[in-house]
Specification:
Elements lengths: L5 H4 L2 H4 L14 E6 L4 H10 L8 H7 L1 E7 L6 H10 L3 H4 L5 E2 L10 E2 L24 H7 L4 E4 L9 E2 L6 E3 L8 E3 L3 E2 L5 E5 L4 E3 L2 H9 L9 E3 L4 E5 L2 E10 L11 E6 L17 E4 L6 E4 L8 E9 L6 E5 L3 E2 L7 H10 L9 H4 L11 H28 L6 E6 L3 H7 L22 H29 L10 E5 L5 E2 L2 E3 L1 H7 L7 E6 L2 E6 L12 H16 L19 E6 L23 E5 L3 E2 L21 E2 L5 E2 L13 E4 L8 E6 L3 H8 L1
Parallel strand pairs: 1-21, 1-22, 2-33, 5-8, 5-21, 24-29
Antiparallel strand pairs: 2-32, 3-4, 6-7, 9-20, 10-19, 11-12, 12-14, 13-14, 14-15, 15-16, 17-18, 18-19, 22-32, 23-31, 24-30, 25-26, 26-28, 27-28
């Protein structure tokens, strides 16, 4: 069993000088926090400029402990694969979590799995069934086998699920591998996406007596007659429970003027209840536009404990213009092995909060056509602040309930989401998604400035989350945290300017999609061949497999971007792909089964990564062609609708992850130029 592959063990001696003699304290011995997508060069810039305080969060760890100038993540540098690499001390090819989405080679050719719910350490393709010899294991398995207590708060892989192979329905990893002493899975979509609403005064009429009486009973006063939308705002169903949402307007300013400033949202079946409310219940949602913050709204009676929130971005005093958003419905998965932890969070922190939603800011969700860019950006900032606050409170609850834990692992989603939306730092990026001329001199400098501010906010709220954990465990008289706190990111973030359609590229190259197909995550692609004897129902013979693999490599290697507006490499190279790796062929192993340090069991038969600046995600519908490209109805290259990407080759500077550590067993002042994320797990195991 390769729990700690030799590549990690060789650096353990380098990491050991961090660790001093153990000491006892009433807090988790080790806390590992991941700030998704944090870039060390950006953190350093913010610390130097004062955007981040040297005495708070990341700044405190930097001054009281150690920091690495560079933390090399794994390839591909994507969220699921990188977090499992951190947790196992093992590369993606070794632990078989190779991307955020990929294909299990033992399953039907058309089926994919999520890397967040795939078997850690692989599975046996014979069957398929649970592997008797997993190639890697999370450090929590090792620790718990040694009698240690472990907590995971939304850390990928800590979800308590039985992993099922999608074609056969066979168990390929039991929930026991993915369950710890206190396990909180990351939340999931409740089936109802976000929606924007634009209303006018004509939509409102006098509120019925039932509404005014309920408001009075709830202690709410309106200094102008309460107005209510004459028809329901919307109706939807969650877990077969129908909800009909009503909205009324209140004037809470005693200024002798009709000045509506607050909206109240409630379910028609529940009415406006007076409270008090016991979590996860919230009662009606009261929202003031001037507060620029949302109000949570629990969906009473939902079996999965679903909830949403409402945000009001425009509210004219006379109701002439009202624009509001109902966020997506979400809940925490109620997997049986972790149900006690999930209920503890629902009942003491609340239902899963709405996450930063790219579908809103990119106008993919319905109802946002009339919203200004500034409104959508403000909505996203609200989601950033409220979701990080929620995730932090989940982590703090996990710690408070398990102060004797040996290890607590906490995942924070920011600054990754903001990095995707707001990394507008390259002259080749259009500041208006639908206008390909808005690059270079055509960019909007005001938007660039706003976006830079939004990135700062994301790093600040993430760093503040770290400080709240430090505050919870306390510090000694010198300011050193009472727990050994490690803060890493899973990867960095880079700007990109061009969306790439690999399906169009393969189609244009003459490949049959029933024989060759790609599964992408960001700029990384696993390209699979439907091989007989390996795939369920495979159709490609071993001899044809070899031919197709060579043809795929040739098609990718030969694909260039001749447009000088975008591809102006100093070396004059026009290639779009940075890395192309075929599955190896060895005489002693059947075709299509061999692995190497880059290709794992479930990797594609060709694995490829784009050059920085290009990304498989972000193509718009209808497609927006780039400035200077030939007119085409099916272009491979096009204008994307967001700005930041990761998943590039791990040695790229902007893919570097952060690494900070401080605590009673961390030797402060050690200068590390470079560490690796796969060394975090063996270092923590040795410390414990």
């Amino acid at each position: 069993m390769k729990r700690l592959p030799p590549v990690a063990i060789t650096l353990l001696s380098v990491a050991l000088p961090l660790v001093t003699a153990t000491s006892a304290f009433a807090a988790p011995k080790v806390i590992l926090i991941s700030l998704d997508g944090a870039v060390p060069s950006v953190v350093n810039q913010y610390l130097e400029s004062g955007v981040l305080s040297p005495n708070n969060g990341l700044g405190l760890l930097n001054t009281q402990g150690i920091a690495a100038q560079k933390n090399v993540t794994i390839t591909p540098s994507v969220t699921a694969a990188s977090h499992i690499a951190i947790a196992t001390g093992s590369s993606a090819a070794n632990n078989d979590i190779i991307a955020n989405s990929f294909h299990l080679v033992a399953s039907e050719f058309s089926r994919n799995v999520s890397g967040f719910g795939a078997p850690i350490g692989g599975y046996s393709v014979q069957g398929p069934t649970v592997s008797p010899n997993p190639t890697a294991e999370p450090l929590w398995v090792t620790l718990r086998a040694a009698g240690k207590r472990v907590v995971t708060a939304t850390w990928p892989g800590g979800d308590g699920v039985d992993v099922i192979e999608p074609t056969s329905g066979a168990l390929i990893q039991p929930a026991s591998v993915r369950t710890v002493d206190y396990t909180v899975p990351f939340g999931t979509f409740g089936g109802v996406g976000a929606t924007g609403f634009t209303l006018t005064g004509a939509d409102f009429g006098p509120a019925p007596s039932s509404t005014t009486n309920q408001l009075a009973a709830a202690g709410k006063t309106s200094f102008s007659p309460v107005r209510q939308k004459t028809t329901p705002l919307e109706s939807f169903t969650v877990d077969e429970i129908p909800y009909t949402i009503q909205v009324a307007a209140l004037d809470t300013t005693d200024d002798s003027t009709a000045n509506y400033d607050t909206l109240v949202f409630f379910d028609a079946a529940q009415g406006i209840q007076p409270g008090p409310f016991a979590l996860p219940s919230t009662g009606p949602a009261y929202v003031r536009a001037s507060d620029q913050t949302s109000s949570r709204f629990y969906l009473e009676g939902s079996p999965d404990k679903d909830g949403t929130a409402f945000y009001v971005s425009t509210l004219a005093p006379d109701l002439a213009t009202v624009r509001l958003t109902r966020y997506a419905v979400n809940h925490i998965p109620r997997n049986t092995p972790v149900l006690a932890s999930v209920d503890d969070i629902n009942n003491n922190v609340g239902f899963w909060a709405p996450q930063p939603d790219f579908r809103i800011v990119e106008r993919i969700s319905p109802g946002f056509t009339d919203f200004s860019d500034l409104e959508l950006e403000t909505i996203y900032q609200d989601l950033v602040r409220t979701f990080v606050d929620y995730q932090t409170r989940v982590g703090l609850r996990a710690i408070s309930q398990n102060s004797d834990a040996d290890l607590a692992m906490i995942y924070i989603e920011q600054p990754d989401g903001s990095g995707h939306q707001f990394t507008l730092t390259d002259a080749r990026q259009p500041t208006t998604f639908t206008d390909p001329t808005s690059i270079g001199a055509g960019q909007d400098p005001a938007k660039i400035t706003r976006y830079a501010g939004y990135l700062q906010t994301a790093y600040q709220v993430a760093s503040n989350a770290v400080q709240r954990v430090i505050d919870a465990v306390g510090t000694n008289s010198q300011g050193v945290p009472n727990s050994n706190i490690f803060v890493v990111s899973d990867h960095g973030m880079a700007p990109f300017h061009t969306a790439v359609s690999i399906n169009t590229l393969l189609l244009n190259s003459g490949f049959d999609s029933t024989k060759v197909r790609a599964v992408t995550t960001g700029p990384a692609a696993n390209i699979y061949i439907n091989l007989q004897g390996r795939e369920a129902g495979g159709t490609v013979s071993p001899s044809e497999y070899t031919t197709l693999q060579k043809q795929v490599i040739s098609a990718l290697a030969g694909f260039v971007d001749p447009n000088p507006n975008y591809n102006y490499s100093l070396e004059g190279r026009k290639a779009v792909f940075d890395l192309i790796v075929p599955r190896p062929t060895r005489g002693e192993e059947p075709v299509g089964t061999a692995t190497n340090p880059v290709i794992g069991q479930d990797s594609g038969d060709v694995f490829a990564i784009l050059k920085q600046g290009y990304n498989f995600d972000g193509a718009q519908f209808p497609v927006v062609q780039r400035l200077g490209d030939p007119v085409s109805t099916t272009p491979v290259l096009s204008v994307p609708n967001f700005y930041g990407a990761h998943g590039y080759e791990s040695q790229q500077p902007l893919m570097s992850a952060i690494f900070y550590a401080a605590g009673p067993n961390i030797r402060a002042g050690v200068d590390f130029v470079q560490v690796r994320n796969i060394d975090v797990a063996p270092t923590i195991l040795r410390l414990l």
